[in-house]
Specification:
About 5% of the residues are buried. The chain is mainly alpha-helical. The chain is built from 7 helices and no strands. The C terminus is likely disordered.
């Protein structure tokens, strides 16, 4: 077996560091997914929306209060997620994760990226509040938090008796 040159050793070391960083990043993204679908997170988000939905109206102009509510929401969600990640991942640091997220945004699944960005996107937040308000006021059917879509062809839409 031939001895490794200095360049080969550096490549092996870089690969080792990269694999460890990749694994930690993937673990963090997976934990965030688990946190967001947890009942505790859903309850926190619903309680916040229940306290604040009455401020929102489905009009073009945004009220000043929306900014305050959005800041409070963002701080609440970020703190909850960061606290949960610190419990679940040894030596977790949000600043490092955010830098990795920025560096790897092209590598992340589009849906996950959108989910993460939605917590800091005002327009997505406003729509979330408006949808919650419509549901609370009985203007939207209660789907238990689920949105169901289908793509039936005309032949599939016929009732069973029509086949």
């Amino acid at each position: 077996m031939a001895a490794k040159t200095s360049g080969e050793k550096e490549e092996v070391l870089a690969t080792g560091r990269s694999s460890k960083a990749d694994a930690k990043f993937d673990l963090t993204v997976g934990e965030i997914e688990d946190i967001i679908v947890s009942q505790e997170f859903q309850d926190l988000q619903n309680e916040f929306m229940d306290r604040n939905y009455h401020h929102f109206e489905d009009v073009e102009e945004n009220k000043l209060v929306y900014t305050d509510v959005f800041r409070e929401y963002t701080a609440l969600i970020e703190k909850f997620i960061e606290d949960e990640l610190k419990k679940r991942i040894k030596d977790f640091r949000m600043d490092r994760f955010l830098q990795a997220l920025e560096d790897r945004k092209d590598e992340i699944d589009e849906q996950i990226c959108e989910m993460l960005l939605s917590f800091s996107d005002f327009l997505a937040f406003k729509q979330l509040m408006l949808d919650f308000k419509k549901e609370k006021e009985g203007l939207l059917p209660d789907l238990g938090g689920l949105v169901i879509t289908s793509s039936y062809s005309e032949s599939e839409q016929r009732s069973p008796n029509e086949h």
